[in-house]
Amino acid sequence: MNLTTGYPYSLISHGLPAIYPKLEKSLETDVVIIGGGISGALTAYYLVNAGIECVLVDARTIGLGSTCASTSLLQYELDKPLSQLSKQIGNHDAALIYRLCSESIDSLEDISSTLKFDHFERQQSLFFAADAKDVKFLESEYDFRRKAGFDVELLSQQDIERQFGFTAPSAILSAQGAAVDGYMLTHALLQYSQRKGLQVFDRTRISKIRYQKKGAILKTESGFSISTGKIVNATGYEVTEFIDKKIVQLHSTYAIASEQLSAGTNPWKQKSMLWNTANPYLYMRLTADRRIMIGGRDEKFYSPPRRDKLIGRKSKLLIRDFEKLFPGRELLPEFSWAGTFGTTTDSLPYIGQYAPTPHTYYALGFGGNGITFSVMAAEIIRDLLLGRKDSKQELFAFSRKT
């Protein structure tokens, strides 16, 4: 599946920081993780730290799927606002899921510290009204978040102009947020996990899975086999190749990264992530090397040829979006790219088992919270493999009502 094209900022900036072999022999292991993006890497990290023997395989070079195209904002806010999610699944469960996402950001900070990984940065998150008609919605959303225990502040137009230097009718400022380089974190996690015994193989496509009474045998396109007791599927949007159930709608998204800004010329006054109430929403952040990264202008289709033809036009529209928000500021793009992302009906991930595929657990973090969802999936799957009950898993089960 073609998941990205163009020149993703992180890939061009860092190249290939590590090399992994192709599987060229048959082997046995306790757990096979299919997928070497951020979801698979986080799962491997949690499993090896729990003493579980693992092998990780990926069909392409590690990190070159949707992971390298991610703009890697870390937010507890879901694509579906808390006020709307509460109406869909109830106040208690909706608030719990938001808190779990918040805790995942803290976990990622702890993991980054353990790895001595320096591409993690705490940032506030500003959710601002794209139009005056959205002010009442933001007021309601603010109340839901405050009652759920989040550190939030409702800002007026004057507050926004004073604190951030642009104009919007209203906004919610959240203290909890961060930015991370998901591509580099993937490699850091896998390098660490290899030292703990993980075996990693890329360019190793699984062509067939034969399920048995006490495990499974995975066949590669090159004719080798992996015998295993359990499988973790962390293939993300490519899961459509493994299961029949329609769980995700694939879309196309676009992003640009500017040239480096001169020191002291940040367009907004606080180094915060910005995103708005539009549908699809516009979002932007500042990178560690003083670039403006902007994403959005999504399209509701999956077609790599159609998606790729739009990169030039979408890039111009993203520049226009920025210059409309910051009149008089010119943005000079240096990188532009397109990627695939998926949405679910309730904006939640799918984590756990799927009955038609025995001995298999899924770590599928879809939407804008893919990285934080992946932390939650890794924790839950670790517990399930260790025989621990995890009540949270039911929130994300394939059998849930959506």
Number of separate strands? 20
User: Tell me, what's the shape?
Assistant: globular
Share in β-strands: 25-35%
Largest sheet: 9 strands, mixed
CATH class of the largest domain: Alpha Beta
Number of domains: 2
Distance from first to last alpha carbon: 26 Å
State the share of residues found in helices, binned by percent: 25-40%
CATH architecture name of the largest domain: 3-Layer(bba) Sandwich
Biggest sheet strand order reads 1-18-14-17-16-15-6-8-7
Low-confidence stretches: none
Output the radius of gyration: 21 Å
CATH superfamily of the largest domain: FAD/NAD(P)-binding domain
- By secondary-structure content and strand pairing, the structural class works out as alpha+beta
Reported by name, the CATH topology of the largest domain is: FAD/NAD(P)-binding domain
Number of helices: 11
| Averaged pLDDT | 93
Write the layout of secondary structure elements.
Elements: E1 4-6, H1 9-14, E2 27-34, H2 38-49, E3 54-57, H3 66-69, E4 73-74, H4 82-89, H5 91-115, E5 120-122, E6 124-128, H6 135-147, E7 152-156, H7 157-164, E8 170-174, E9 178-180, H8 182-195, E10 199-201, E11 206-212, E12 215-220, E13 225-233, E14 249-258, E15 272-276, E16 283-286, E17 292-299, H9 304-309, H10 311-325, E18 333-343, E19 350-353, E20 360-364, H11 370-385
Parallel strand pairs: 2-3, 2-13, 3-10, 6-15, 13-20
Antiparallel strand pairs: 1-18, 4-9, 5-9, 6-8, 7-8, 11-12, 12-13, 14-17, 14-18, 15-16, 16-17, 19-20
